[in-house]
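Folding Query — how this chain folds
Tokens — whole-number codes for backbone shape
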Amino acid sequence: MPITPSHELRASLEEHNKIFETLLQLIPAKYYLPQERDDDNNGSKYQKNKKKQSAPKQAIKEATKKARREKLDPANNKSILEIQREAAELKGLAPTNAKQKGKQKATAEDDDSDDPDIEMADLSDVPDSSAPAAPQPMPSYESISTVRAKLHARINSLKQERGAVTGEPGSRDELLEEQRRKRGLLREKRRQATRERKRNEEAGKQKKTAIQERTKGHQAKNQLIVPDPVPGGSSSGTTNVTFSAIASSGGPSKAKKYATATDPRAALSQLASRNEKLSALPAEKREAIEERSRWEKAEIRAEGGKVHDDAARLKKAAKRKEKEKLKSKVEWNKRKEALAANMAAKQKKRTDNIAQRNERRNDARKGIKPKVAKARPGFEGKRIFGSKRSSTKGNK
């Protein structure tokens, strides 16, 4: 923060003081200064007509004229600043006059000469009390910068006494040097943290590789050891043998080479085309190819794959599939016929119901009563133990 010089502060304060003085001059002094009144004028409420009775009219008129003249006189209408200035001048002149009078008495007693010139000179040296006193200058105060410098010096001295580190550099160069030093320390800390992190990562990787190598070594050793027989096994004493898949050098290309279609008829046609190609080759080459294909098929089966190269089994599968197709076709046809018959019966019943409804409606329009169906023989629908039977007996 920049420091304002003392002369600028003084000029600013004087300018503000002038503004306040001009504002105070605009207010008349009678509004906030007590006015001196005579005891005659301050009559009580019981002496209202005393002034009129005691003073004649001419005196009252003269007094009012005088009061009006004094009111309009500019010498009497003084502002509060002028009144305060006059009071300050009077207070300043009183002690100076007293000192000068004391000096004059002392010089008069000591001096035995009756020289009139000296007396006149002494009298001329005495200042006139009526003359206005010279304005006294304001007391000079220290500037803010000097006070601040003293405060900082005092703080630094106290810090040095108690052994604290003063963190305030003196000049711009020292400040830049301090910032550079802090940046260097921060950089060094970051580098050290990076080195530590890399060291920890490398140590973790080495530890992980060592653990993996140790586990691999244990696995290799365990594979060489024959496992102990499991207690509480089967009473027959037979051991369970498991066959693992053989890792072939050919890979999955062999399985693709002997792969056939899922449809038995298509598989038969593929097998027939392969046999035709083999029969067209010379005998020695055909035998070598057949031998190699047998070994390859054995490897595929050992790995868990399937090779469909038996023509008899493929023919049986084709026949079985044809029979299944025929059977499903017959069942499907029967189902279709049953659905058609059900639909026809439902449609016939619907048309019959509609025809009967129309017939009854037409009979109702013509006024023909519906025919009552004849009762079947027997007691169906007849009241045997009701009131009808008793009434018929009474009539008989």
In short: Residues 108-132, 233-237, 389-394 have pLDDT under 50 and may be disordered. Residues 323 and 329 are 10 Å apart (CA to CA). Residues 1-33+54-98 form one domain. DSSP finds twelve helices and no strands in the chain.
